[in-house]
Write a structure and sequence with these properties.
heterotrimer, A alpha/beta, B alpha/beta, C alpha/beta, B: alpha/beta, 4-stranded parallel sheet, 11 helices, globular, C: alpha/beta, Rossmann fold, 5-stranded parallel sheet, 3-stranded antiparallel sheet, 4 helices, 8 strands
């Protein structure tokens, strides 16, 4: 099937293109980009007036829950959710059961993903740093990378031991792979359900200090300084951690980081509702931290927007706040929150948003570059940056509905993706 | 003029008129408690469940007495006897309670926010009898009643709460309630037991007890949990008792009339000396008496409002 | 308030109370064994007046108390407006006393029923007698006043209002149209 996408606003940061153009796709490849393109007979045509056509978005932090927690999400439902959210690629985290610490699991995940909607969403597994994610023995990184692991993390838990972290950075660095750290000094966060501060005091809630994130990021940056490696901070959430990454970048270290939409949108004030969908790890922080996230996004300290999509079934979340599991789903609200909170207030241009959702994560992970130019494979995200819509979690394609954004009006809506020769329209 | 809410979940944000109504109404129940027959028929036919997921004999008995003296039918459910241990969720427990046509639920729970949660899933009136380190509104109300009874007012009275502020629902509810009623509140304890940014609740923070007592009319002394040493909140109880224990010597040094309260149960000789607990400064037994009257007041006001 | 008739005016009110005081004394052979209990709020004021008159006649202190029957009301559960508790204040032992219960208007008898229950919870009086300023009929319980200032036959669309100086600035008994339309 051939496609002609007409009158879209084509924005490609890599080729520095931003303008209205038609895109002709033949056999999954871009045949031509330009004005008033003529379509060969039998071409499916779509008018994309007012729609942004961008290189395909990659969410580098997603929990697909399979294997082990299929009641929360499966590779199939997760891929549908990604497609509906405008992502052509997701990186799935290894805190599954069993953990992704064996090449066979990686192959299984990739195989299953290829069968979902003709493989329109690429799933790139991120493997565990340590065997069983227990923080003690390194996982077989050469084999894992060989099977398709694009990075390494023990996400959900930090690599706590400094020596293990040093060796992981060295070993992964040898493979030109990034170690992604869930930065949390767990001795300081035991039992905590939210960020420590005025609101946790006012609610009498067991809390986690911001310093617990900062000390791990600081330590890791010193390790990167000493043992040259690629290091990425997952779901950064404190001003302190952003400042540390900024300094590390200035010093030329290979240090990158990502922020979630909820960490640049919500503050810990949201916890006053006792809505368990405001409980995540790292927790929602103060207004000052949210400000720091926006500054970091604006000045480039924060490279990537990633959702930390963390599905939980409804009954797991319908419990007392302190007993609820951490995490919220994010794939289907990411573009809406990013446009509403970052593009509309002028913190990022649409082109910069595309860098943080497509160009930068792929660069960090060593994934193929995406370009919108003749000859390139068509890998596209389509979204309407002006469309207002109301979040209805019941309409989510994800198996889980645990989002604090239900009922919120957002501007910017994903309309579809094109990847691997397949057009998916939501 | 009823209360502004169907539930009593906490004193955070509660209108001062509500507090006043509860305290004024409690005065009527203090009179009932002096009668030969200490019982009125106001809540006849109402069933109240005392749902205690945490052990607290004193609070449960105080509530149960209050319920019986209003002629309500109390049903007691404690964590040991209930199915909670078998993994039944609070939501399921609540739904079962709902099917049993319960009118009111008094709940003690280890998790902050549990009472808020319950109030969203049952139709019954919910009274929070303590949720984690969040709130314990009836304790604060009885403390306030006791202070008002003794000093005539709460306006501009200086109250210092001493001890483990960071893990205390009593402290937090007292701060909210007392601030709403125009009292001046300070907290005193070692820095490890003072929670982050508590000054933003409008309270002064002291690390030195003598300094705190120099301006206080009332000391509300909290029970120190003996296991706080395990997570490095305290080095030793001996040191705590020397630095923060309320003793007759300290009261004499303060050179002003100070009354002493304690929510109980007391660790004699740790946070408060026996002489003080049993002495002329102590309002501790008065608090117990007022506790029943204040809880009757809350049950009555919630149970008879439509 | 739409006044249909002024049944008793200020001088008449005073005379009526004086008569009630004498009747109470006559029935009880003096004031030695009696105690006056007013039902708050208007019954409380009338009780104070009656007590003063009786004391002036008898030249002896009279025990007086006040009853807030709110906690004993039978309509607490379906009453739309929650009444404010004023509290009961009876500082003497009612046991063995001849209690004269005082209220402004006797109507359905439900208030008196609640008052009887409450007094019985306080002790075991020798007798309980009832004195009211006005009896407007329409009893729902088998209750009868011992001392009545004025019997006023009414329709359900009417109400009897007893005004007292202490609250209303004047003493009077009025027949008024029921507020909020017909019954």
């Amino acid at each position: 099937m051939n496609y002609l996408l007409k009158n879209g606003r084509v924005i490609d940061p890599l080729t520095d293109h931003d303008g209205i153009a038609d895109i002709l796709i033949v056999d999954g490849r871009i045949e031509a980009v330009g004005k008033n393109l003529k379509a060969p007979a039998g071409t499916e045509q779509h008018d994309l007036t007012g729609v942004v056509v961008a290189p395909g978005f990659t969410d580098m932090h997603v929990h697909l829950r399979e294997p082990g927690f299929e009641h929360k999400e499966t590779i199939e439902t997760g891929c549908h959710s990604a497609a509906a959210g405008g992502f052509t690629a997701v990186c799935c985290m290894p805190n599954t059961q069993p953990a992704i610490d064996d090449p066979s699991i990686i192959r299984m995940i990739i195989e299953r993903a290829k069968k979902v909607h003709q493989g329109v969403v690429d799933v790139y597994p991120v493997a565990a740093v340590t065997k069983d994610r227990n923080g003690k023995l390194l996982a077989p990184m050469i084999e894992l990378a060989g099977a398709g692991a694009v990075a390494f993390t023990d996400d959900g838990a930090p690599v706590a031991d400094a020596e293990v972290m040093r060796r992981a950075l060295e070993y992964a660095g040898m493979l030109r792979k990034t170690v992604i750290q869930h930065a949390e000094e767990t001795s300081m966060t035991k039992g905590g359900a939210m960020s420590e501060g005025f609101v946790s005091t006012a609610l009498g809630m067991p809390a986690m200090p911001r310093a617990a994130e900062d000390v791990i990021v600081a330590r890791d940056i010193h390790l990167v300084r000493s043992f040259a490696a690629q290091y990425h901070v997952a779901h950064i959430s404190t001003r302190g951690a952003v400042d540390l990454v900024r300094t590390a970048k200035r010093d030329g270290l290979s240090v990158t980081c990502e922020v979630t939409p909820h960490h640049f949108t919500l503050t810990d004030e949201a916890v006053r509702s006792f809505d368990t969908n405001t409980k995540m790890n790292p927790p929602l922080r103060s207004a000052d931290d949210v400000e720091a996230m926006k500054e970091g996004l604006r000045d480039g300290t924060i490279d990537v927007i990633a959702t930390d999509h963390a599905p939980h079934s409804y009954d797991e979340k319908e419990v007392e706040y302190v007993y609820a599991p951490f995490g919220i789903v994010g794939l289907e609200t990411s573009i809406g929150l990013s446009v509403s909170e970052l593009v509309l207030p002028g913190i990022l241009t649409i082109a910069q948003l595309i860098e943080k959702c497509s160009v930068n994560p792929r660069k960090i992970l060593g994934l193929p570059e995406l370009r919108i130019e003749p000859g390139a494979r068509a890998n596209l995200t389509l979204f309407d940056p002006a469309k207002e819509w109301i979040v209805d979690t019941q309409k989510f394609k994800s198996k889980s509905k645990n989002s604090p954004f239900h009922g919120r009006t957002l501007t910017g809506k994903p309309l579809g993706i094109f990847n691997n020769g397949v057009l998916f329209l939501s | 003029m009823p209360l502004s809410s169907r539930h009593l979940l906490g004193l955070d944000g509660i209108p001062s008129d509500d507090i006043k109504l509860i305290l004024d109404t409690a005065t009527s129940f203090r009179e009932v408690l002096e009668r030969p027959i200490k019982k009125v028929p106001s809540l006849q036919g109402k069933t109240v469940v005392n749902l205690f997921f945490e052990n607290s004999t004193r609070t449960r008995i105080s509530f149960e007495l209050a319920e019986r003296r209003l002629s309500a039918d109390p049903v007691n459910m404690s964590a040991d006897a209930s199915s909670v241990r078998k993994g039944e969720t609070l939501k399921d427990t609540a739904r079962n309670i709902e099917m049993m046509k319960i009118d009111m639920v008094v709940m003690r729970h280890a998790a902050a926010g549990a009472a808020h949660y319950l109030s969203q899933v049952v139709r019954a009136n919910v009274i929070n009898a303590g949720d984690g380190a969040h709130e314990h509104p009836t304790q604060a109300l009885l403390d306030m009643y006791t202070i008002r009874e003794k000093l005539g007012t709460l306006q501009d009275v200086n109250i210092c709460i001493v001890g483990d502020i960071a893990h205390s629902r009593v402290a937090l509810s007292n701060i909210y309630g007392l601030r709403a009623m125009g009292a001046k509140v300070s907290v005193c304890g070692p820095r490890t037991l003072i929670p982050a940014e508590i000054d933003r609740l409008g309270v002064r923070v002291h690390y030195d007890l003598d300094e705190a007592m120099a301006g206080a009319d009332v000391l509300n002394v909290l029970r120190i949990q003996l296991e706080r040493q395990d997570r490095c909140f305290l080095p030793t109880l001996r040191e705590y008792s020397q630095a923060y224990g309320v003793t007759p010597e300290r009261l004499a040094r303060a050179k002003r009339p100070i009354v002493v309260m304690h929510p109980g149960p007391i660790n004699r000789g740790v946070e408060i000396s026996a002489d003080v607990a049993d002495g002329e400064h102590s309002l501790i037994l008065q608090q117990v008496l007022n506790g029943v009257a204040v809880r009757m007041s809350v049950l009555y006001l919630l149970g008879t409002a439509n | 308030m739409n006044i249909k008739a002024r049944i008793i005016d200020e001088p008449g009110f005073e005379r009526m109370l004086r008569r009630l005081a004498h009747e109470i004394l006559e029935r009880n052979k003096g004031s030695e064994t009696i105690a006056i209990v007013g039902i708050v709020t208007r019954g409380e004021i009338i009780a104070r007046r009656l007590a003063k008159m009786i004391q002036d006649i008898e030249h002896r202190e009279l025990q007086i108390g006040f009853l807030d029957i709110t906690l004993y009301r039978d309509d607490l559960r379906d009453n739309l407006k929650q009444p404010i508790l004023r509290g009961t204040d009876i500082s003497f032992d009612v046991t063995g006393k001849n209690i004269v219960l005082v209220d402004d208007v006797l109507y359905t008898g439900r208030t008196v029923r609640a008052a009887l229950d409450e007094i019985v919870d306080l002790g075991r009086p020798a007798t309980i007698q009832l004195a009211v300023v006005a009896d407007r009929g329409h009893r729902e319980f088998p209750i009868k006043a011992d001392f009545v200032g004025k019997n006023i036959p009414t329709s359900p669309d009417e109400e009897v209002r007893v005004l007292v100086k202490e609250i209303d600035g004047e003493d009077a008994v009025l027949l008024v149209e029921r507020e909020g339309g017909k019954a």
